[in-house]
Request: fold
Amino acid sequence: MAIEKTLILLKPDAVQRGLMGEIVSRFEKKGLKAVGMKLVNVTKELAHTHYAEHKEKPFFKGLVEFITAGPTLSMVVEGDNAIAVVRKLVGATNPQNADPGTIRHDFGMVTGRNLIHASDSAASAAREIALFFKKEEIIEYKLVHEKWVYE
Reply:
């Protein structure tokens, strides 16, 4: 079993559309555990750091404007192979190409308003969690049902 932590951001469109509870519930129902969660107004500085790999791409300016346009729910979840599990639940970047049953397919319409960000690797998860959370904001605890979810 490979217990991992990963970052999930529910972008301003998910927050404004009242989808936070529904989306968080999908991760919990899959057996993932929220170990950090808060609403954040992402600053331009934080957006530039978070999306640094896209700095030279034509969509970068719009991406920064969008992620800073309203509150974002920042969440760290933990579980067995959490990074892959989360990315599978999230779906393809373009909601039109996302598999039915994924968050982006079920709630998204266009790539630029695709509701959610999820770390794509262990290295990205560690870097992104450190950007959005202080160490003391990540809570370690056991859920009573963990013995029923994991072998």
About this structure: The chain has a mean pLDDT of 96. The chain has one domain: 3-131.
